[in-house]
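Entry 12.
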Amino acid sequence: MPESGKMVMQGYNLVKLLKRLEDATARLEDVTIYQEGYIQAKLNNYDKKHEKTPNISPTATAKPSVSGSIPSAQNDSGITEEPKSVVEFQKFISDNVDSLLQLSNEIDPTVGECLSLLKQAFECQLILIKTASKSKKPDYNSDLFAKILIPINESIMKINDLKDANRQSKFFGYFNSIAEGAPLISWFAVDTPLSVISDFKDAAQFWTNRVLKEFKENDPNSVIWTQKFLNIFDQLKAYVKEYHTTGLTWNPNGLDLSEVSTTISTEAPATPAAAGAGAGAGGPPPPPPPPPSSVFEVKPDVPEAKSGIDAVFSEINKGADITKGLKKVDKSQQTHKNPALRASTNEPIKSSAPPPKPKKPTTLKTKKPPRKELDGNKWFIENYETQTEPIIIETNKDESVFIGKCSNVLIQIKGKVNAISLSETDSCSVVLDSSISGLDIIKSNKFGIQVEKFLPQITIDKSDGGNIYLSKESLDTEIYTSCSTAINVNLPIGEEDDYVEFPIPEQLKHSFGNGKMNSSVFEHAA
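Predicted 3D structure (tokens):
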């Protein structure tokens, strides 16, 4: 080829190479522009989702809303306002609880401490109401929801502990009033919160009446304190009726509780003063989302494994090729050609024992403290368990005794008493002198009764496994039983006043004649 032809060919190749280089450069520019537009679109969507307020200086920026789907009012400065239910609950605390706390501190520092725990529970509930305004309704049995309720439960338990630690205080009526009314915090968890608030008001009012009875003449503040305390129930009832008629109101368009609870917990005020100071302060905006993966990365297409009915049809469609996946079995593994293997297969296969079934968790109940107290003309002995020493009380004929929810205890009642009731006890023994009306035993198991003097009547209902020892003065005692088994009565009519046991009949015979029903004890059970 002549020299001029070679130069023409080289020039042609150079032009072609430059053309390809320009095409590649244009392609790279297009890809870069596409990727920048993709990232910008993602950022815009993220900003819209978090309701980022435009044209606001960093010093005036408010806290970003947790959910972009929640309509929230904004004032002229652009600061997002709280929902009205949250604002009104804050007002409820400041108008009712704060003034009562100040008065409680004037009455007694310990009473003030007890009421501050109640205020703390209300503040924790305020956080819950904020969370509900931004979150969908969660599963109330979930671990996350139980974790949110821990601060409220701890405040209520501390109130009860403080009450029990001050039983000898002259202000015990105040502590009982707060402790009996504090569970009104649970209104959010029921469908009829108004009735729950009314019930706990009635329970607390029993003790506020005692406060008035004890302090009305000596301390005028007791009257004001009682009025303010009961007013909390009325004001809370009005608030709940307005915003949460059927329980705590959640946001159907909100985020999941797991997302909202994290934000709310970081915003939760340490003290009420801090809450007011930080209402308008805003945190830094959240970081932008991570950029999308590079468009230059090419991932090979991996076929997804078929499952379900598709996998079945896929195997069927293989036809004769389906046997290619089978494993070849050699002679050493064939029982008809290996006598030793055939002999071993004759032994019965021992199936492994099934794993034990997990036990169902028992219902968690709050263990109440033991109580032995004379309230008016009635003794209360409750919640005692496994007492090594007998519980002894001195009574008179105008008083009655109630024994409830005791286990493995011995109770001695000295003196003549009006009436005695034994309810929901287990392995409980009672030694009594005399009773004017009689003895009632309800839902008790393995009980023991010993009468020293006179007892006119015993009524036993839904109880099992009892032994009753009567005195000579009580041989005419009338015993009424229903839905009870294994009841034995011992009378001192044997030699040298030994006791003779008489089992209470459990089997009855019923017959009909002349239009009437006749019942008698079945002779084999007598």
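Annotation: Residues 49-78, 266-283, 292-299, 360-364 have pLDDT under 50 and may be disordered. The first strand starts at residue 371 and ends at 375.
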